[in-house]
Amino acid sequence: MSTTTTTTTTTSPKPQEIEIPRGPVTSKLIFYAPPPDNSSPWNYVEQPPKGFPQRNYTENASTVHLNDIRGQESCFQLNC
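Now predict its structure.
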């Protein structure tokens, strides 16, 4: 009786080069907007029942200015 060993090598595709911005940038961020009737928010993960929307809340897009604080981390505190 003999044993055969097979080795398979898989390589992942090279990740796309993504430019990391340095310094201040302006970007659009999407924020949650509550349901207009002040009800609790809900979202159907699958197809909603006929006549129902996918979710009862909306999104609010805002343009924001973001500052790069790399190298200045000690000047900022998250735990106030």
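The mean pLDDT is 89.
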